[in-house]
Amino acid sequence: MELIDTLSEFLLKESSYNIDQISQIESKLTEYSKCKLNRKYLLNQLEAILLGESSPYIGKLFALESKSAVSSIFTEPLLLDKQLWIILSVVSRINVFRRQAYFAEKKSFVADLSIHNILTLNNKGVLILKNFLEPSLHNSIMEELNSEPYALEKANTKNIKTNIPFISRFHFFKTRLKASGSILKNVSKIANNCGYTNGYWHARKLVYSSSFCQKINIKNNENDIQKDSHADTLFPSLKFWYFPYEVSINKSFLYAISSNKMSLNRMQIEADKIKTISNSIRNPYTSNISSSYKSQLEGSLRYSLAEIDQMGLSISPVNTPSNSLVLADVSGIHSRGNGEDEGTDAMRISIHGHTRHLKVF
């Protein structure tokens, strides 16, 4: 697998592992990529190689509690040369490919998705499904969302599906918006077939509990940390937007195509960022930092245009016609658009949700 070969090349140059250890890491990752059962056993073996069997961190490496970069296991100075952030990024991607192979074998793809679509998402990091809904349902959703309030985040509104404690354990969610809610089942199937969750019911719970009508004004020259080029997580994570209306270029989601891939250049850049974070959190002046850098400490690494160029990439608007479903792996580099000038229509309306979770290995 090319990804494993790239990791081996990186570790030879940038880690403290010897050639025999790197060969063992490569062997375990290859086994893991084909494994259907006993993945935990393989991960335990890999962890022992990475940390040493007597390490106090044994049992913690593949048990993520958050997406934060400020974790002792990532930023502990004695562990920095083991490149754990990079290795976990690779392992989580291998698991996505492993899940995809499983669904391809079962031939359980939904009507709106094909193997070609999945390969597009793997290679580019973003997928646009145009003319996603029948005209009648598309029109019903536009009418329904027009009366929804301004909402940047879920906290500003109510979910499309209502999460009722206890009852949601049985996969039942009360529908608040009938037309909008009707598309979420298919989005859940798509997310699962793309390999980002641990089964359909897991995908459905994540999609149902996160989806809301995002109605935001995106204005030029407005201070917004989401306009900084960033990656949300070290592991593959899917966000989606259903856009009932065409989105202008200035309001479009920006994405660096293929930045979801762990190239050698990206590995080197991210390893340097983790070292910088390790140093900064031990600096007494760290409290005087920007909100954007705080977000980086929480695991959403920031990237300059020079760094994006160094990876051989460029960040550009995702062209979005009306009635389109946009799926994006937000471990890739992305940002919110620059926005419209004052006096123009800055409103962008979508059904927005995600499948982020921490059971990624």
Structure in words:
This protein is an alpha+beta fold and 361 residues long. The chain has 13 helices and ten strands. The strands form three sheets. Strands 1-8-5-10-4 form a five-stranded antiparallel β-sheet. It has a three-stranded antiparallel β-sheet with strand order 7-6-9, with no helix packed on it. The longest helix has 23 residues, at 84-106. The chain is globular.
Strand content: 5-15%
* Low-confidence regions: none
The number of distinct β-strands equals 10
| Structural classification | alpha+beta
Biggest sheet, in brief? Answer: 5 strands, antiparallel
Helix content: 40-55%
Strand order of the largest sheet: 1-8-5-10-4
Topology summary:
Layout: H1 2-14, H2 19-34, H3 39-51, H4 72-75, H5 84-106, H6 115-124, E1 126-129, H7 135-146, E2 161-162, E3 174-175, H8 178-181, H9 184-193, H10 200-210, E4 212-217, E5 238-243, E6 254-256, H11 264-280, H12 291-297, H13 305-310, E7 315-317, E8 324-329, E9 334-335, E10 347-354
Antiparallel strand pairs: 1-8, 2-3, 4-10, 5-8, 5-10, 6-7, 6-9
Helix pairs in contact: 1-2, 2-3, 2-5, 9-10
Quick recap of the structure?
The chain is α+β, with helices and mostly antiparallel strands and 361 residues long. Helix content is 40%, strand content 12%.
What are its keywords?
single chain; 361 residues; alpha+beta; 3-stranded antiparallel beta sheet
